[in-house]
Write a structure and sequence with these properties.
Length: about 80
């Protein structure tokens, strides 16, 4: 990351998701990302890479569940705290 980018991991996640959905202006923290097709199977692996970069640790498919990715709040609680 460059010095001008935010270091808040939640903001990085929101910015990443917004970049994938240019029709959205904001993502409420409690919005279901899967039901609203903000996070889908096509982009999921890249999203995991982002989370690994933010957390500094590998995230395996065996250790995650769909509910870990339902909302921004769930992602923060599971991976970014």
């Amino acid at each position: 990351m460059s010095g001008t980018e935010t270091t808040d991991p939640v903001a990085v996640v929101i910015d990443y998701l917004l970049a994938k959905k240019p029709d959205l202006e904001d993502i409420p923290r409690d919005l279901d990302l899967i039901e609203n097709r903000i996070l889908d199977s096509l982009g999921f692996v890249n999203f995991l890479y982002l989370l690994e970069e933010l957390t500094g640790r590998e995230i395996t498919m065996e250790e995650v569940a769909p509910n870990d990715f339902r909302t921004i709040d769930a992602i923060e609680a599971r991976f970014l705290r």
